[in-house]
Write a structure and sequence with these properties.
Chain lengths: ~425, ~280
């Protein structure tokens, strides 16, 4: 009995100590020794191995005595775990964030990086997604955008020219009708089980409906949810489904990865995909062949609109408030966004990285078209919304498709959520 | 006595009180500020949370079905229908699978273009969006939960049958009782304690172990129709970064569980007295 009690205590003590070690363990009172802990959900991926190795090497060159430990967390649990760390006031020194709401909601726990990352301001793009109230809290690693991808093979089978997709909504849907007739493929692959379908739809087609002034006001925080053009976006969401343009069962189909599967298997002509991470040009290239992956901006849906590629900083790294030496941690963030590391991330993962000097010419037509559109691109409409409004929009979008909530009612609720 | 009380106070009651205390503070800009009952007021004004509580009500209403299915199947096995040994192991099999695996299997089976809908199509019945129709999804998830967990209740029923006096059954049969009459007048009264035990354990299972299935099969959707309080708490804490608000929801869930738990204890106690 005594022995059992001893072992219980020993196991408990070991676990407690192990917990301390992995979460804190920052002894960097002088910047040449100690340890930095990084939390992310990428470093465990095979495609990020070279990226992490290059970033580590770059950092160790500057700070030979400091060890860096990457702790890859499961993405599903990431913000829950991070929430617990923030609540406790201790945790990793450097952590990965999605740009937009996820980092803006948590800036209280972060160190402003403006002074530290100034030399990278010009080289990298996508900073806005990691900034709040004029301060920068994270450095962008990738750019995330929402281009409309299309299957060139289906265009050819239906006798259409895939080099010149329609630039008006009527032309676009007419092409869809032609292709559906010839190949039985639906116009769009829709995955809205997680409520993400509407986010992509809003951002991909918003620039084809809102005027440039309306668009810029939206991003700047002046969002008029009662304007006719905003209503048109959500009405279009409903109409597209009512007209049977979406793949069936959108509300029970995951975007990651069922809807991408529908597109990759040629059962849908178009999908609003991503630029980095997954569901992007490189994934589609593998299934459809690099020559058959087309990419376009929104067609013009309302007069006065100027379609542009919606994109922001995708993922990036930030420094925790509780780290002992913010300058040292910020230096690690700089290594994680060095050109060499980002080049490796582009090459292995197909991520469109924040460093505009990284060469992408060998990746095929789709990536070239995306990179060319970055110059005129604008921040994505949904990224400007708070996590709370995004979550509500996901639920309402499902109800709109079901017909249990009207577009007007949904916009009223979204307006209230956005103002609060 | 004293160490036991200390352990309970330290590891159970103290964290509970901390949680309740935390639920009276704010989130974000008001982090750490005492806000009184603000979180609770907001909670009961949120249709999503009220919907989650309503779904708990549905679970309670569906409880008799969840108890009747293993009860009836155990009866058939006890009455030695042909192949009863085979059925006994087959029925128990899903009980050893984790909810995540069960959910993934049914995601495939029940997807819009999946095998079940193809079968319905062949039969001339239109496809059903099992997980994407807000009127159907909650029942689908509960159905899968029952499928996945009834094996354990079945085993409990079978052990209850072992205590049943076979002479009673023989007597009923020789008096010319039909099967429904045997079930109603011999089996149900003889197994009353077992049935009540299964009611209690099944209820606990439904209230505490649905998270995995909801997470994998519907993500609370469509339109929030399959939210349960646990899922709501997880979303508020993990995705919305509102730990204090999530604490308030946890406190309400705790009170609901307390009421259900006390009701169950009183039922068990009454049964004990009858015997």
């Amino acid at each position: 009995m005594k022995q059992r009690a001893f072992w219980s205590v020993a196991v408990a003590a070991t676990l407690a100590l192990a917990g301390c070690g992995s979460a804190t363990g920052t002894d960097s009172s002088n910047s040449t020794s100690g340890k930095l802990v990084v939390w992310d959900w990428k470093s465990g991926d095979k495609t990020a191995t070279a990226y992490v190795a290059k970033a580590k090497a770059d950092f160790v060159k500057k700070h030979p005595g400091v060890t860096v430990e990457f702790v890859a967390q499961p993405f599903d649990q990431y913000y829950t775990l991070l929430g617990a760390a923030i609540q406790a006031g201790k945790g990793p020194d450097v952590m990965m964030f999605n740009g937009g709401g996820q980092i803006r909601d948590r800036v209280d726990a972060l160190v402003p990086l403006d002074g530290f990352v100034a030399p990278d301001q010009q080289r990298l793009t996508g900073w806005d997604a990691f900034a709040k109230d004029g301060k920068t809290y994270g450095a962008p690693v990738t750019l995330q955008g929402y281009p409309v991808y299309f299957n060139k093979t289906l265009y050819k089978t239906a006798g259409l020219d895939p080099q010149r997709p329609a630039t008006t909504w009527d032309g676009f849907t007419a092409d869809c009708a032609t292709i559906t007739k010839a190949t039985k493929a639906s116009c769009f692959a829709l995955g809205n089980k997680e409520g993400i379908g509407i986010q992509f739809f809003l951002s991909a087609f918003g620039s084809g409906i809102l005027t440039p002034q309306e668009y810029d006001s939206w991003i700047a925080g002046q969002r008029d949810w009662t304007s006719p053009h905003v209503k048109q976006v959500f009405q279009l969401w409903k109409d597209v489904n009512d007209r049977g343009l979406n793949s069936k069962g959108g509300n029970s189909t995951t975007l990651f990865t069922d809807a991408f599967g529908i597109f990759q298997s040629g059962k849908a002509v178009n999908i609003i995909g991503l630029m980095s991470d997954i569901g992007h040009w490189k994934d589609f290239n593998e299934f459809l062949g690099p020559d058959n992956v087309g990419v376009m901006k929104s067609p013009v849906i309302a007069a006065g609109a100027t379609p542009s590629l919606p994109f922001d900083g995708g993922i990036g790294y930030a420094v925790a408030k509780w780290t002992k030496d913010p300058a040292l941690a910020a230096d690690l963030v700089r290594s994680l966004t060095s050109t060499e590391a980002l080049t490796a991330f582009y090459a292995d993962a197909g991520a469109v990285v924040s460093d505009t000097t990284v060469q992408t010419s060998s990746g095929g037509a789709a990536i070239s078209a995306i990179v060319a559109d970055l110059k005129t691109g604008k921040p994505a409409l949904h990224v400007a919304l708070s996590s709370k409004t995004i979550e509500l929009m996901g639920r309402l979008s499902q109800q709109i498709l079901e017909g249990t909530v009207s577009v007007d009612d949904a916009l009223k609720q979204l307006g209230e959520s956005d103002r609060s | 006595m004293a160490p036991a009380v200390l352990v309970i106070v330290l590891f159970r009651l103290w964290p509970l009180l901390l949680g309740v205390n935390f639920s009276l503070t704010g989130d974000g800009d008001r982090n750490g500020v005492v806000v009184g009952l603000d979180n609770y007021v907001e909670l009961f004004a949120d249709p999503l949370f009220l919907g989650a509580l309503r779904n708990v009500g549905w679970l309670v209403l569906l409880l008799p079905v969840a108890v009747a299915i293993p009860g009836i199947l155990a009866t058939f096995i006890y009455l030695r229908v042909p192949g009863h040994r085979f059925y006994r192991s087959v029925y128990f099999f899903p009980a050893v699978l984790s909810p995540v695996i069960v959910g993934s299997i049914f995601n495939l089976l029940l997807s819009f273009g999946g095998p079940l809908n193809r079968l319905l199509d062949v039969l001339g019945i239109g496809p059903v969006d099992w997980l994407g129709d807000s009127h159907v999804a909650m029942f689908t998830v509960v159905g899968v939960h029952i499928w996945a967990t009834f094996g354990m209740a079945l085993v409990v029923f079978l052990s209850g049958f072992a205590t049943l006096d076979p002479a009673l059954l023989d007597a009923a049969r020789s008096d010319g009782a039909t099967l429904p009459q045997v079930i109603r007048h011999v089996i149900v009264p003889g197994l009353s304690r077992t049935i009540q035990f299964v009611f209690v354990t099944t209820m606990i299972g439904m209230l505490t172990s649905m998270f995995g299935l909801i997470y994998v099969m519907t993500s609370g959707g469509p339109g929030g129709s399959t939210y349960l309080p646990e899922y709501y708490i997880w979303i508020q804490q993990g995705q919305m970064n509102r730990p204090a608000y999530a604490s308030a929801a946890s406190t309400v869930l705790f009170l609901v569980m307390l009421v259900v738990g006390l009701a169950q204890v009183s039922i068990l106690r009454r049964t004990g007295r009858e015997d």
